[in-house]
Amino acid sequence: MSWLVTGGAGYIGAHVVRAFAEQGLTSVVLDDLSSGHRGFVPEGVPFVQGSILDTGLVAATLREHAVEGVVHVAGFKYAGVSVQRPLHTYDQNVTGTVSVLRAMADAGVDKVVFSSSAATYGTPDVDTVTERTPTNPESPYGESKLIGEWLLRDQATAAGLRHTSVRYFNVVGSGTDEVYDTSPHNLFPLVIEALLEGRTPRINGDDYATPDGTCVRDYVHVADLAVSHVAAAQALLAGTSLEPVYNLGSGDGLSVRQIMDAMARVTGVDFTPEVHPRRPGDPDRIVASGELAARDLDWRMRHTVDDMVASAWRARRAAHAG
Length: 322
Description:
A 7-stranded parallel beta sheet has the order 3-2-1-4-5-7-12, with helices on both faces. The chain has a 4-stranded mixed beta sheet with strand order 6-15-10-13. The protein is built from 10 helices and 15 strands. The chain has helices at residues 11-22, 55-64, 79-84, 86-107, 140-159, 187-196, 222-238, 256-267, 291-296, 305-321; strands at 2-6, 27-31, 47-49, 67-72, 111-115, 128-129, 162-168, 170-172, 202-204, 216-217, 219-221, 245-248, 254-255, 274-276, 285-288. The chain is of the alpha/beta class. It has 2 domains: 2-172 and 220-248, NAD(P)-binding Rossmann-like Domain (Rossmann fold); 187-217 and 250-287 and 302-321, UDP-galactose 4-epimerase, domain 1 (Alpha-Beta Complex), CATH 3.90.25. The chain is 41% helix and 18% strand. Strand 1, helix 1 (11-22) and strand 2 form a beta-alpha-beta unit.
């Protein structure tokens, strides 16, 4: 018996695969490699290259590998780009999730952990987001993730699907030098690429209503995130009752300036970030409570900001050297 990790060749999915192995659990990866990397999949883990939109392929993979549950990470994850590509975003994230759920029903698989997003909240009007904070997505990406949660809920009503969804904000760091964040939009890789190329990193806005004037966000280490995905899978296997949604949040957050300071401190590259104008729509502060996940999903912040930076820097430099 094994678990299928859709998107398991991506940054987050590849860490989930490793977290399963650390618990002595087997997994199989399905990924179309549109943003994932074949080299991110550990040796010995079965790999199927294909799209989650191919329902027949998903169902065949579930049957062939005696899959007992799915961690559904695959998706189009660029919130900003989704505004320009709404149909593509809905196709990948909504139609894709329908395809996975249909394949699961066809193959008799009734357990799923869904990789959702804090983008479902939009711009909340509270200092600390909880699972009770109203959802108000502001991009096709956020909307598509919320619809994914609804699909799980409705399939549970219709067919007894056992499920939970995990929402998270800014995922950073590396749990292994073999896997790193390759997103062209995330803060950590943008800063690290700039430093590797001898450019000066930039801050967008330093006049926000925060202690140092820069935006405060939740930054969580990808390896910590992966542990909680596996804890959710194990809880579903054990028949434990889970909440429909969990936030994997830090509870306090870090400012962009604090991230920049840590980058200089840890990498040894002395720089003063360039300050540019605000980006439209960036709220002052978005931080989530992880209390429910700490109770049920072995969630905790095991890494400091310096740990996050050091692991991301080490993994990216290893890839750069290679």
